[in-house]
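Q: What does the assembled structure look like for these inputs?
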Amino acid sequence: MDCLFCKIIAGEIPSTKVYEDELCLAFRDIAPQAPVHILVIPKQHLASANEINAQNSTVIAHIFACIPQIAEKEGLSSYRIVSNCGTDAGQTVHHLHFHILGGKVLNTEMA
Ligand code: AMP
Ligand code: ZN
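A:
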């Protein structure tokens, strides 16, 4: 499958990993929009949050259990979790990902 993030998971494209286990991978965003900008992705290819269902949602729950640990390791007490779902929402990579943004006072405007 021609998917950038699947290639990162496979090690075919380099990334700066900050966390990895059997279900998910977290790595630094290549174009950070905050001092800390990490992407957390399921190892299973899901195109977006629109593909989350009762069968695969345990992986999503697992990711949300990992995020506080990743944030703590990065020294973040406040942070934002973002997932752009669909092109009009700003999704450019069609493999589900959760942005962790922090390390500064974030813009309160969300849309
Ligand atoms: P989105 O626009 O929500 O789909 O987010 C995709 C994110 O992936 C953007 O913030 C990009 O900067 C980031 N990105 C694209 N290519 C890479 C890469 N090779 N390594 C790390 N982050 C990337
Ligand atoms: Zn993928």
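The pocket of adenosine monophosphate (ligand 1) is lined by residues 4, 13, 15, 29-31, 39, 84, 90-93 (CB under 6 Å).
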